[in-house]
Amino acid sequence: MDVLLPIARQQKAQAMTERLEGTFRLNLQPHHAIWMLLIFVFTVGAAQAQAPRELISPIDALVKWMPFILWGQEGTLNGFALNLMISFFAMLFGTIAGVTLGLMQISLLLPVRKGSWFVTQFFRNSPWLVLLFTIMLLFPFEIELGNMIIPVPDWMKAVIGFALPVMANISEVVRGAVRSLPTGQWESAESLAFSRRQTLWMIILPQCFKRMIPPWINWYCILAMATPLASIMGVEESVSYTAQAMNAEGDRPELLPVFYLFLLLIFFVYTYPIARWSIRLEKKFVVKT
Amino acid sequence: MASPGKKANGWTPKQPMVSIKDLHKSFGDLEVLKGVSLEVMKGECICIIGPSGSGKSTLIRCVNALNDIQKGSIKVEGLEVNDPNLDKLELRKKVGMVFQQYNLFPHKTAIENIMMAPITVLKQDKDEVAKHAKSLVRKVRLEGKEDSYPGELSGGQQQRVAIARALAMNPDVMLFDEVTAALDPETVKEVLVTIQELAEEGMTCILVTHEMGFAKEVADHIYFTDRGVIVEHGPPKTFFKKAKDPRTKEFLSQIL
User: Fold this and answer.
1) Is CATH 3.40.50.720 the right assignment for the domain spanning A80-235?
2) pTM of the model
3) Which of the listed residues A80, A289, B94, B240 has the most CB atoms within 10 Å of its CB?
4) A198/B120 Cβ within 8 A
5) Contact B208, B56 (CB under 8 A)
């Protein structure tokens, strides 16, 4: 039984942080990367072997379409590049709105606190796809501002659709971080005659900042991996383009695993270092405080 | 404004600096303090002792309004703490507090911990505050540790920073809430010495403590609380030798 204790402790620690932040952790380890690569190589090899000789081989097809899947046609930013763009903007807006909402959740004013709590819970517990559908279908395709007509492209609507759940989750991250500080910090600040605002900005939030970075990065990874949902609404990102590319090659079944595993691989290659970095940051901060 | 008996400016040093009358405090249905009265004169050092859960810490936290009270009166230099219009800033400038868990700000160095409140709250000149902070560091014997973060200091050192931090506000009364309870036995002494020196310099001190030796030596007056009331009190000489109440006797026999 003693052998199991360290594992149990580690599991418990992870469960505690997950409960605090209300989200699971992307606990990516180096062996995950090795497995990914092995599966990819094996599948590609199998598909290659099965393919009819007279047609273009799956690997050649993939190489041919790779630029298209990664950024679309020459001079455009579609495909995987659009996934990244959506994730950047959704994270930016989601963070700004989420921090504001999170601070409102710890307000002393009851209506502000209850209202922001409701908004947070509403968007946190709605399925991302439902939010995305709602925004993409409700939002006008152009906005009139006086004489100006501003077009709103689909990917921008997707940004708003993704920013909402991110906002709600960042709001919880902020609230959780503030809550996680010992009450003694508030009390000693109070006994030193700091006002609530001074306490919050000079004592509480600077300490929370460090604690918020790892879950914030974690949410970014989750968001980045969720952006392909936009393909359902016809946004021209990597999954849409992969489907188009396979379509152009005659929808041959042996292309399917190769193309989709390639997609999986790009997302993995992108999120893996970020997830590792967040784990490292977290370890560093835990020792400090 | 028009609360009865409020004479914030009428206070003279000949009157008690802290005066508690018939204090009642409940947490929900649980009545923790059931009519406590005590007085502390300027320059006095009093110790509150008693078994765990007897309301000692609650009592001391009421003095600087960290806990609100249901009934009774607490006056600090004539300032009524149980006044809904209480100027908490005014009260907390007069009352410094040190906690069992130190509660230093971990993202600030020792000297920053000390200087923060006078600069932000009292808006004092930075250079003046720095000078004062330096002298406080010397006073609590932490020269050379100014730029250490709390995490790099021992418990006793952290607690002395906490004392200096409270003193930086130039309080008239210092509250110590079981400040040695979380410390290693070896470091208890360095903190107690610091408090003793303060008391000898004439700082008005209210301590909640389990250190009987310290209470015996330093306190001017000892209060024994049990189940929310003050059971017995007196100067250390009579308190330790001639305790009358059976509860006090039992407690002392267990501890001494």
Assistant:
1) no
2) 0.81
3) A80
4) yes
5) yes
